[in-house]
Give the backbone structure.
Amino acid sequence: MRILFMGTPEFAMNSLRAIYEGGENIVGVVTTQDKPKGRGMVLTPSDVKKYALEVGIPVYQPLTLKDGAFLDTLKELDPELIIVVAYGKILPKYVLDYPKYGCINAHASILPKYRGAAPIQRAIIDGDFETGVSIMKMDVGLDTGDVMLVKRVCIEENDNFESVHDKLVVAGSKGLLEAIDLFKNHKATFTKQPDNFTYAEKITKADCLIDFNKPVKCVHDQIRGLSPIPLSFTKTPDGKILKVTKAHISRDVRADKAGTVVLLKDGIYVSCLDGVIVLDEIIPEGKGRMSASSYINGRKINVGDILG
């Protein structure tokens, strides 16, 4: 089967690697343009491009797919199946309709829940105990296509965005390989998505501000859902930003007024609406990542301080 792969970030790169190492015939890789990064604004290729070049797969980086701009290349590559994983561009109808077996997408949620840009973060922030990867046949809508199969993973109490992402990388790779085999054996079937969908909107700065007036579980879910990027934050009494990279819920310290620092021991114990969250690892404004204990030892915070 001639497969064209379209993707951009690390999540997609791991899927590409699994398909390539599985011995599939990848005729080309389509990814986004190189982007300037770092202080020197050096043009940097995507993770997908880096891997494709390492193993010798031809790479294509069209500026646009609109108005048939990619049609000649598509005819030249003549894929029977297009696999899309976090590509970053909307596929026009002529691309969707070209392959014999269509275009399939690995989306990091159990559809129809969390269509859109930030499904992993939103699942954790919302306190879900399960998520997964849906392999679906793409159509002109945003994550609206019929679902082929779903690989589920658990979200544990102390999982964060990074750990759930890594679980989904493995699940997604397995799902795509299963999907390819189903196509080869003419056993692929699809199920229409229910109407009770939700959207996972892009994470904004407002999503990152911690509100200690919320239940402690909500605060904990927000912190872990945004770690290690983009990170949740609060403000110290002097108005400086304090980012939180790691926290846990205290089971044995009594809460006070929301936002109050009630204990400084092995972490910064802060009252929420119905419990206490312990900030274990932080990034103070203008500083690097450090343990809460190091911050405490530097006498930058006191019991009774109000955060937020």
